[in-house]
Design brief:
Keywords: Flavoprotein, FMN, NAD, Oxidoreductase. It is built from six helices and seven strands; from the N terminus they run E-H-E-H-H-E-H-E-E-E-H-E-H. The chain has about 200 residues and is of the alpha/beta class. It has one domain: 3-Layer(aba) Sandwich (Rossmann fold), CATH 3.40.50. The strands form two sheets. Strands 2-1-3-6-7 form a five-stranded parallel sheet, sandwiched between helices. Helix 2 packs across helix 3. The longest helix has 19 residues.
């Protein structure tokens, strides 16, 4: 049995294409892997605060010297990190907001990219500690950006995931969603076809 962690980051609950993609992913994955455990964390419902002085303090201050706020921030980071550590498969749903990922997803990453936990520093540079995991990134984009200089999602997420040792990453882009007509239909159909291959 594998554990699958799905991270939703769309601000919208209704009419969200990235949520449609994750729903379809989960249905197809569970049909193909009925014994797998799927956990969904919705960052729009359970918002993760931006990295702040309390979180930094929680990471760096000895336990006996931590303030209550630092202890709470550390506990939140531990919860998120433990979920990621336990997962065999990571699914990130990432609508494109202003050419990049939602700030909620960035906040989640800031909580789980942790020195000594998900990566470590060595004499030859940083080394990711989450080897053996796979990741799928499901994006929803109003325009067509894959492979262009305006795509700040895929390069960033590849780097962030690779930094913690997740190098097997597949991106599924639903693009042209705001261009209307055949662009919308084509973008969705292509993404759904790729999802079927994944499962």
């Amino acid at each position: 049995m594998s554990k699958v962690l799905v991270i939703e980051s769309s601000a919208r609950q209704q009419g969200s294409i990235s949520r449609q993609l994750t729903d379809e992913f989960i249905v197809q994955w569970q049909a193909a892997h009925p014994t797998d455990q799927v956990t969904v964390r919705d960052l729009a419902v359970e918002q993760v605060p931006h990295l702040d002085i309390n979180l930094l303090g929680g990471w760096m201050t000895p336990a006996e010297q931590q303030t209550d706020a630092e202890k709470a921030a550390l506990a939140r980071s531990n919860t998120l990190t433990d979920e990621l550590l336990a997962a065999d498969v990571l699914v990130l749903a990432a609508p494109m907001y202003n050419f990049a990922i939602p700030s909620t997803l960035k906040s989640w990453l800031d909580h789980v990219l942790r020195a000594g936990v998900t990566f470590k520093y060595t004499d030859t540079g940083p080394q990711g500690l989450l080897t053996g995991k796979r990741a799928y990134v499901l994006t929803a984009r109003g325009g067509i950006y894959a492979g262009s200089s305006m795509d700040h999602q895929e390069p960033y997420l590849r780097q962030a995931l690779g930094f913690i040792g997740i190098h097997e990453v597949r991106f599924i882009h639903a693009e042209g969603l705001n261009l209307g007509g055949e662009f919308l239909e084509k973008g969705l159909n292509q993404a759904k076809a790729q999802l079927a291959q994944v499962a």
